Amino acid sequence: MQGLARAKAAGGVTAMIHLASRQEMNMRRFRLFCMALAWFTAVAFGQPKGWNDPFPPFRIMDNLYYVGTKELASFLFVTPQGDILMNTGYESSVPVIKASVEKLGFKFTDIKILIAGHAHPDHVGGDNLVKELTGAQVVVGRLDAEKTKTFHPPGQEHPIDRLVDEGDTVSLGGTTLTAHLMPGHTRGCLAWSTMLKENGKNYYTFVECSLNGQFLQVLDNYPGMIDDFRATYKKARTFPVEVFLSSHASFFNMAEKYQKLQKRGPGDPNPFVDPEGYRAHVDQYEESFEAALAKREAQGAGKAGSQGGGRQ
Description:
Elements: H1 2-45, E1 58-61, E2 64-66, E3 75-79, E4 82-86, H2 94-103, E5 111-115, H3 121-124, H4 127-134, E6 137-141, H5 145-148, E7 162-164, E8 169-172, E9 175-181, E10 190-198, E11 201-207, H6 225-236, E12 243-245, H7 254-262, H8 275-311
Parallel strand pairs: 4-5, 5-6, 6-7, 11-12
Antiparallel strand pairs: 1-2, 2-3, 3-4, 8-9, 9-10, 10-11
Helix pairs in contact: 6-8
């Protein structure tokens, strides 16, 4: 009887061990599932509503086409030797961009150079997928490179084939783009300039990086950022901008200008020639940056004063 009791007890212990082992395995699987779900949620649902919606692709001027989403701007420069794509948006933006390129009658695989956007996931999140689909050379600003490397799908590294600095150029098939360092929004934010032609006239075309400094709490706040922003606003006014574009469609009123472009008649001006709009844009974002900075400093002073009163 005692032997039978021992056997039952031993069997019970074994069963409990197996049960604990299964529970531990299930917990491990659950943790892995939660990690995967968290990543998927960040990728799929961490995007502001509507930003990734499709937008009709169209020709802006000369060999420059808009192929981005409703809010995340992507530009295609078409040349006889292949094409240059600028900005990929999120990874989930890439199918939208690809469909836009093909709707215009071009081949996505003809993209030979990808100029990465500034080091935020809504501008470089799709770099890996574009590299995979096209084999394009990926060009990244040197000062943004380390931050850019942090944005990639799990198990992959962010592709970087060439680093560029202030004044460097990217050329292909007769099109040359020049890099301009405009730090603040990111440490290595790069704007790009080129010349486009329409009706026998050349236009200085400027794709700004981002002058947006009104949401200081979500920026990197690296040492020297405030001085960088102020220097960038001054520098922004030195460019003879005629065709004004940016990393976000809303920054240059893309949707409104697109509608005007569709209704444009012979002899009507191209709505994307907008030097006044560019200057107003610089003024607006400088003012919003200074207002945000003043608010932050006032809040900081208030907290410090409150803490100081407590110590007294």
